Amino acid sequence: RYHATFRPAPTPEIQARLRQNPRDKEENIEKRVETYYRNIKELEDFYEDAFYVNADQDPHVVFEFIESCIIKPLPCKK
Fold first, then answer.
1. Are 69 and 51 spatial neighbours (Cβ–Cβ below 8 Å)?
2. Which residues, if any, are the signal sequence (predicted)?
3. Residue 21 contacts residue 4 (beta carbons within 8 Å)
4. Which residues are bridge partners to 3 per DSSP?
C-alpha cells in the first residue's frame, strides 16, 4: 500500500496505476466528520467512564497512560 505523502509509489508508472479509495474522497470525509460532531454529545454521555488519550506520542507513553487509567484510575467528579 502507498500513501501520497508518507509512502509514495516508487516509480511514476506505479503512481499512474494507483486509485483512491472512494470512501476517502473529500465529500465523504466531510459527511463522516459532520456525523461525528452531530453525535459526540450522546457518545460522551454513553461512555461516561471514558478517558482522552493523546495518541500523538511514543507508543510506549500511550500504553503506559492507558495502563495507568485502567489500573489506578483518577477519582471522578460526580
1. yes
2. none
3. no
4. 7
